[in-house]
Here is the input.
Amino acid sequence: MGRIFVVELEGRSYRCRFCKTHLALVSDVFSKAFHSRRGKAYLFNKAVNVNVGTLEERMMLSGLHTVGDLYCCCCGQIVGWKYEVAHEKSQQYKEGKCVLERVCIVDEPDFCSEFYIDTCPTVTVSDSEDA
Ligand SMILES: [Zn+2]
Here is the structure.
């Protein structure tokens, strides 16, 4: 109970802005044309290391959807939402997909094989030594 299994993504990914946990692959971006109340949002084919909150019906610009908030499994921040059901036929491509809000994720630049999950929220930059 309460044990967290963190999935590490291979390849370029987006991470939680708050705890740097991997959330989704850049290659899984379905659309970057989404908007949330807090600004830009991206639609992903899938996201990892997230928990889906209570499902609720939400009226959106594109119609009625049954959605659940997505919480980062490490820090508990809301990072977006998941479409469970789209009631409009034209919107059903979204079902099962996840939206991550741009303000909640950070773009990971090309990342080498040497990486680890940094659970500490402080950013460490230690590349200032003179050669
Ligand atoms: Zn997090």
In short: Residues 110-125 have pLDDT under 50 and may be disordered. Residues 16, 18-19, 21, 72, 74-75, 77 surround zinc ion (CB under 6 Å). The beta strands are 13-16, 22-25, 29-36, 39-44, 50-60, 63-72, 78-86, 98-101, 105-107.
